[in-house]
Write a structure and sequence with these properties.
The chain is mainly α and 78 residues long. It has one domain. It is 71% helix and 0% strand. The protein has four helices and no strands. The chain starts with a helix and ends with a helix. The model has no long low-confidence stretch (mean pLDDT 93).
Amino acid sequence: MGRQTLAFLAQLDAACHACDDLAHDIEELFFQHPDAEIITSFPGLATLTSARILAEIGDDRSRFGRAGDLKAYAEARQ
């Protein structure tokens, strides 16, 4: 039982390190995007949340002509 627990903890530790590495890479790549400063300026959005918002809505500025269009899209996704 002890060996199984140690093996599980080693796997969990590796998964945690992989998540940390992925978060670091996402942050690094996100800040290369021209809209990163705009998106992170929204109240309550941290870097990873901002990257997710960008991934969800895309970076085509003509996609949502009005703020109401983006709001309707967000409400439809809930």
